[in-house]
Specification:
With about 170 residues, this protein is mostly helical. It has two domains: about 25-40 and about 80-170, no CATH class; about 40-75. It has eight helices and no strands. The longest helix has 23 residues, at about 110-130. It is elongated, with a radius of gyration of 20 Å. Mean pLDDT is about 85; it is low at about 165-170.
Length: about 170
């Protein structure tokens, strides 16, 4: 969910480069965050646990326990799951932002390239996991090192003393 704040900071820094693309990216990112949070199984399981604690009979407890176990056993990355669509939307937003970075002198080419690599790997992994699980050859974690470097390059540029635009974007 913190990536939403990063997207807002990037919108402030890159909005002048391509306002439409950045607005679309931030909208997709926030929509993805909302979809992911709304479909998060942790909240549903928490609700089941409260009902389990209040259950009066063993039959009620057994039914609630079975429902919780079923939720835990389901694969979260299926075509219709909110988890999948949340990740797809946030990753598409990141890809749009990284593409806009290519046209900006503010972040530099390295940040744009790492952003593109991270988001292409992430999107490839999510799509194959959701739509063709037997063909999955890219683990979702493959994008993590690239995302880490991308976020560090973004933070370094936005927070660098005397960067002018970056310091204004943070305020």
């Amino acid at each position: 969910m913190l990536v939403g704040l990063i997207f807002l900071g990037l919108w402030a820094a890159l909005g002048k480069v391509n306002r439409r693309a950045m607005t679309l990216a931030v909208a997709l990112g926030w929509l993805g965050i909302a979809v992911y949070c709304a479909s998060n199984r942790a909240l549903a399981i928490y609700s089941l646990s409260g009902r389990y604690a209040a259950a009066a009979t063993g039959a009620e407890r057994s039914a609630l326990l079975a429902a919780g176990e079923k939720m835990l056993a389901e694969n979260g990355f299926t075509f219709g799951s909110g988890t999948t669509w949340g990740f797809i939307l946030v990753t598409m937003a990141g890809l749009i932002i990284a593409t806009v970075m290519l046209r900006s002198e503010f972040f530099g080419r390295a940040a744009a390239v790492f952003g593109i690599l991270a988001n292409v790997l992430g999107l490839s992994a999510i799509l194959t996991l959701a739509f063709a699980p037997p063909m999955t050859f890219i683990p979702l974690s493959a994008s993590a090192p690239f995302l880490l470097v991308w976020y560090l390059l973004i933070a370094w540029r936005l927070l660098r003393p005397g960067s002018g635009t970056g310091r204004e974007a943070v305020r």
